[in-house]
Design brief:
single chain, 115 residues, mainly beta, 5-stranded mixed barrel, 2 helices
């Protein structure tokens, strides 16, 4: 079964780890119910209580644009890299198949995990 988790925003930029396609992950998540009743899973690793865990292999990663469109990327850089403070990782985004750079300023990602 595939489960999609939202990763990003201040929570990830603070101290989130890098996540790559094919990584095995164990993500603590909050459940958020939208006004239309849809439940979203949002990764958390701070003071919020974990409501569910998503464990498995990462099979897809998308970066979301401000206009709602999405682009496949190879990885979610660590929060430190996204903020420009990692000497070994410049925090760039690239497509998984061609290595082409993705110029997206938004730092919200959808990580699909096969559990």
């Amino acid at each position: 079964m595939n489960v999609t988790v939202e990763v990003g925003d201040w929570e990830h930029e603070c101290c989130g780890p890098a996540i790559e396609r094919n990584d095995v992950v164990d993500l603590g998540c909050l459940r958020w119910r939208d006004a239309d009743g849809r439940v979203r899973l949002i990764e958390t690793h701070h003071d919020s209580p974990v409501e569910t865990r998503v464990r498995g292999r990462v099979v897809d990663i998308l970066v979301l644009a401000e206009d709602g469109s999405s682009t496949p990327v190879l990885r979610v850089p660590s929060g430190v890299a996204l903020r420009g403070f990692d000497d070994e990782d410049d925090g760039h985004l690239e497509t998984p198949w061609s290595g082409e750079l993705v110029d997206e300023r938004n730092r919200c990602f959808l990580v699909t995990v096969k559990s």
